[in-house]
Amino acid sequence: MAKDVRNPEFWNKFLMRPEVEAVMRKKLKYESYAEAAQRTKLDKAERKQRRYDIMNELMQCATNVKHLISPMFRYKITQQYLWKVLCEARQEGMLFCDKLRTPQVYHRLQSIKAEITAGPYGVAGWQAEEEVEEDLMDKFVVEADCIPGGIDGEAPDRKQVLDKREIQGVLDFGQQIKSEGNEAFVNENWEGALTRYCQGDEMLKNFAAEPHLSKENKELKTMHRACLNNKANAALKMDSWQTALRAADAALKLKTDDEKALFRKAQALEGLGKTDEALEVLAEIEQIAQDMDE
């Protein structure tokens, strides 16, 4: 008797046969892999386009911003955050470079950088993007490396000038970071304190109040100097003599007779084995004290 292939019962029994079930499982598995591969291909194409968009926008940014971002751009978490910021900037009608320099965004980028550069434990879970476009990346890194300032307290090539309301936000944020650093220092968490003070330094040196806001500019300078002095102190606790020396020198650029900065500079020089130079700095402190007594 011929089998009636039009009969649903026939197909029900046919599909229940072990060899047919095995074939169907393989087919479904293959289709699933094919769909996943297609999605991955589309995702890669989309991520690639996003990277191009971000990097082309970054080319227009100030060099100190490039200096901050270039070492960590390969990480997916950085690219995801930058894409979010770029989308927000477009929605708000802002320039991407201006959006990056707002206190909250700049602080978040500092936090990401601190996590990535904290060593193997800090990098855990941070996946690097394998296919970053080398032609753009090379140009980006070269430009970022050719920066006359922008590290360890040095003034960037261009500060963002803020109005009274905006600069107050920077001061409040700077005070918060400084307080968190002080708390870590009191708890003898030197590394945590140093990270916070570095973040404060990186943020505060990038902003200035409008020229007529002399009080706010003075507060900003005072807070930045305090962050640098604290940064030097935390670095000394970790025997990071060079970091301490650079931070102390940066503080002295803001106030040449800063006794705290001079003392920490002397300690750093002594740690580096430059005893004669350390003694010269201590002599400066003594001279300042004598001048104040007169």
TrEMBL record:
GO annotations of cellular component type: cytosol; endomembrane system; membrane; mitochondrial envelope
Species for this entry: Polarella glacialis (Dinoflagellate)
Protein name: Uncharacterized protein
GO molecular function annotations of the record: protein folding chaperone
Cross-referenced SMART domains: TPR
